[in-house]
Amino acid sequence: MDFETYWTNLVHRVFDEQETLCGPDELIYRLTSIYGETMVNGIFGYFDQRFLEYDHDLRLLRACGYNDIADDFAKARHLMFGETPLSEESVNEVFERLAEDEENPSPSSESAELDVIYDRLIERLPQLLVERIRSASRTNSSSRTPSKSNGRVTPRSL
């Protein structure tokens, strides 16, 4: 099965069938979602679409050895939300505040720091696609018995 067909199937299972993915399917879905939301819509888009998944996304990034990416998401979360729990309401409030800040000719240091974090993320996020491709090929070519490879979590070790 090619990746596009596989991805369409995963999206259908999550959104239409409300299935909770696990193992290799979850790994591939999360890595692709983190990459896609952030690259297409920026850090704000990531939090807008995935605020409910944030904690799980960070655990997965760390388990896969992407501590630097997880750290940047954690810094962005702290800059934008502080200790406030992530919810639709808190996300909307932050977006309104940041939208007002963008209209200001002198953006805040918070916005400038978020820009720096985003620049780092867009350089490193393609690593997630490499991991996703490796995971997809292992999923298609091997059994799902536990294993680890170079300290990185593989689909078979989830």
Please describe what this structure looks like.
Residues 136-158 are annotated as: Disordered. Residues 136-152 have a biased composition (Low complexity). This is DUF4375 domain-containing protein. The model is unreliable at 142-158 (pLDDT under 50). The chain is mainly α and 158 residues long. Strands 1-2 form a two-stranded antiparallel ribbon. It has helices spanning 3-16, 23-50, 54-63, 67-81, 88-103, 109-124, 126-141, and strands at residues 148-149, 152-153. A hairpin with a 2-residue loop joins strand 1 (148-149) and strand 2.
Task: Give descriptors for this structure.
globular, mainly alpha, two-stranded antiparallel sheet, 7 helices, DUF4375 domain-containing protein, 158 residues, 3% strand
Count of DSSP strands: 2
Overall tally of structural domains: 1
Gap between N and C termini: 22 Å
Count the DSSP helices: 7
Question: Helix coverage percent of residues?
Answer: over 70%
As a percent range, the share of strand residues is under 5%
- Rg is 17 Å
What is the average of the pLDDT values?
Answer: 84
Strand order of the largest sheet: 1-2
| SSE string | HHHHHHHEE
Unreliable stretches (pLDDT < 50, length at least 5) are 142-158
Largest pleated sheet:
2 strands, antiparallel
SS-based structural class?
Answer: mainly alpha
Shape: globular
